[in-house]
């Protein structure tokens, strides 16, 4: 897969994790995914921002908690926009909240921290020098961002208003789509639309994220965005995470087009790891 140099508006473009102990988190993820780290903050800065790389390409980051925020470990999703101020205004108008007003991140870009009407938090990113993840969809890199919600219909109204997203139901999962993204990927890698059709997933090239409904009997889990990383072997990744002090919340299972595990790092941030398995394309599919 070619390295990315930017995204189009409405596409998740970056993830980072806030951690009480960034160095310990870097040690965990470095051993789990093979990431190498470099401090991105200038000398004397009050916080840490450790840029994670594979083959020299940015894939994610580990940071200290934002000033004034609780020391809680969590993964954060960033969505590319052309104008962070406009995106914040749209979120307000659509019934969401602006938790962090738009601000400049040195020369890297401009961002805002938002929440949808159900409280799921995400960030928007107006790029300057930092143009998002350079490497995606390969082992050790992000391959999905997922909205976990109890009210998919309300979420559809909100994200359509803010980002222009529509949805695609393949019978074994529902996804956020943006038709312009499929066109962008087709230009980036000609034949993308044809290959997804051959896999029995026509339209999947337009997918920008996924939707998961929180179980009705789960009263403890709030609406939230979660992050999934690609791996060559979900079972091996789960075993390695345990060896490194993490926790397996969901043992590896077969899922549509994949084998999936849900993990928690030693400081409490949850994430998923998934290996592509073409033979699993019909797992969970509703008969037509």
Widest beta sheet: strand line-up: 2-3-4-1-5-8-7-6
Q: What is the global morphology?
A: globular
Helix content: 10-25%
Would you tell me the overall average pLDDT?
Answer: 92
CATH architecture of the domain at 12-127: Roll
| Secondary structure tally: strands | 16
The CATH superfamily title of the domain at 12-127: 2,3-Dihydroxybiphenyl 1,2-Dioxygenase, domain 1
Structural class, by secondary structure, is alpha+beta
**Gyration radius from CA atoms, angstroms:** 18 Å
Query: What is the third-level CATH name, the topology of the domain at 12-127?
Result: 2,3-Dihydroxybiphenyl 1,2-Dioxygenase, domain 1
Query: In percent, how much strand structure appears in the residues?
Result: 35-45%
SSE string, helix = H, strand = E? EHEEEEHEEEEHEEHHEEHEEE
Stretches where pLDDT is under 50 for at least 5 consecutive residues are none
What does this structure look like?
The chain has 288 residues and is α+β, with helices and mostly antiparallel strands. It has a domain at 12-127: 2,3-Dihydroxybiphenyl 1,2-Dioxygenase, domain 1 (Roll). The chain has six helices and 16 strands. The chain starts with 11 loop residues before the first strand and ends in a 12-residue tail after the last strand.
